[in-house]
Amino acid sequence: MNAHASVSNAGAAIAAAAHAARPAQPDISPASLAFRAGMRKLAGAVSVLTVGQGEARTGLTATSVTSLSVEPPTLIICVNRAASAHNVLLAERRFGINVLATGHRALADRFAGRNGEKGPARYAGADWTTLETGAPVLADALASFDCELDEAIERHSHLIVLGRVVAARVADDAAPLLYWSGAYRQLGAAAEAR
């Protein structure tokens, strides 16, 4: 067996394990399963997108946030078109991106809907405020970006959102919450001690 075959077999085993751990989904190709398994190896900062007002508030947990440009300040987030935040985001055209610290694991779970929370229930137990646009932002986030929807591009299962940052607030000394290989992680001495 050559090295390429070993990598392919290992990739297939990882994809099969990832598939077995998730509910059955119709017609997911082996390449898509391997892609999903591979992307779980890409560590990412955990953020929550917040959008809406009053009873229309909703949001989601994401690791798909990245900067696009500093001038003008713009970021990108990818939102599943089936997410509850999708239509509210397109209607409101303003939203917050909140980079989470290590103490925000429960909040990340709520915005991911892990215990069935939906809409305004995802905001429970946290302190929220606004900056310029009126979109809700987390008061103790590692960083909060108050955005206006600059452009939305539909591709495949997702909406690629370009958010023009109109205001930002950054915390001083806090460690980021990360997601890697299907679990929350953290940087620093506490993580190294494990």
Automatic annotation (TrEMBL):
InterPro entries: Flavin_Rdtase-like_dom (IPR002563), NADH-dep_flavin_reductase (IPR050268), Split_barrel_FMN-bd (IPR012349)
UniProt GO molecular function: FMN binding; riboflavin reductase (NADPH) activity
Oxidoreductase keyword on record: yes
Domain Flavin reductase like residues, every copy: 39-186
Superkingdom of the organism of origin: Bacteria
Keywords attached to this entry: Oxidoreductase
Pfam family, one: Flavin_Reduct
Keyword Hydrolase: no
Family classification: Belongs to the non-flavoprotein flavin reductase family.
Protein name per the record: Oxidoreductase
Species in which this protein is naturally found: Azorhizobium oxalatiphilum
